[in-house]
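Sample entry (242 residues):
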Amino acid sequence: MFKEDDRVESATGKTPDRGVSRRRVLTGAGLAVAGGVAAAAATSTEVGAADTTGRVAVGRKGGTAAEFQGRIAQTGSSGQIFTAYGYLTAAEGAASTDLFAGSPRNETTALLTLYATGTLTNRVLDTEVHSLDISGSLSVYQRSAAGASFGDPSTFTVGAKVASFDMTLQDVLAVFLPGRGIPTLTGDMLQSFSGTLGGGLSGKKFGVAGLSLRMFATGLGTLVDPATLNSQLEIAGNWATE
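Predicted structure, serialized as tokens:
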């Protein structure tokens, strides 16, 4: 057994002239490791802080980053195609005047709009509660002037694209009347693109590329065609930083 003050031998097998105790070596190594961990933690914190400075729609971990309102059209020969469009009603780091060009606060005055597409990957139909899995993508656009309309989904893609997300969602539909149901959508979002905003948010970036988020939405669904399971949904929801 080594004593606490035993000297550490050099590669030649001799004791170094300047006696360095094993305790001092181990302590020094421990401090170096601790210092490295502390430095790494500090770097991580600094990067995280830098990533959220001057950003819009980046909430604290577990906090809401953005809120939205919109519509979903379920189409296709078996209801396998989803197209969603809407607008942001709130976003971390943005004021109401950044999101709307006046009143009323709705799609006609919205300045940050959303457009998403998705496809059905799995469906389970029960008596009154149905479950659908959907995979797709969502983009955020900044308009220079208001003018979106639910009567024309293409108006929600006008302007500069400022963010893109990949999504995997589960839609649980609770049927309460024939042809009427309450959808609850939850799922994961991964931001793939973060662009620079203009207007009152000039110079800021929307979100952070690589950021993981969690979406929630609910609303009301109406069956349009029972043969093809086509439907229209009115929804509102939010996404939160994970």
